[in-house]
């Protein structure tokens, strides 16, 4: 098992992002372990503080950057699991900025849980307003729970910044089995706090599935508190006003993690300026699928980005 305990936030305090240097051997270990290729890039990392948490943040900047893409990971994951997307977007000459959600990756917080979903939104809002220039709105690519965070931000934050375009990949609203969870969680919660995580086959890439089980920054429990927070959050979305933000939904039709047949129609009403791309054969982990499916997703994103650049 690999350890990154030496990557201590006290060595990299807010608000500075540190360029990679040889003496920061622990970040080199991190990059090598997760196969994050920063060759020919200006790479920076650090922690930013918000409320009671410290968030691990990274910036991947190519020479002569054309713009910025913010990427946000899903539940259980962390920024390094998006290495394919990071490399693809930097090859497009876009700077990529990302951070680990609280309780995920190298950010602080109780593992894989949250008391209220709004805490994700508040941290994201702080991140966007602090690190993204308003005069150059970024593109946003958000997966699953990360997509839910951006949905919450756009629908509820009165100071929400407009983005050039937002891509919601397998967005979270309702999860598979939500009805059973709604009935059972209130009965179980006083007695059971978490279940053992089942590592589901949510990608057709077997190598990726093996990597997840070996990943020291993944978590092996499913806290019921997190499920309760998601259930409470979904109920708050019903009465929100529609957003004018232009978005693209990208969804695999073999996804058995989120209830996409409900989620997509629901979100399309909340985001009327939207389009939807269905990836035939794609599962939940669209950015970690077999290369054939992953390239479909990334090429679709690139095409929309190129179109927006011409407008």
From TrEMBL:
InterPro entries: AB_hydrolase_fold (IPR029058), Hydrolase_4 (IPR022742), MAG_DAG_Lipase (IPR051044). It comes from the Bacteria. This is Uncharacterized protein. It comes from Priestia filamentosa.
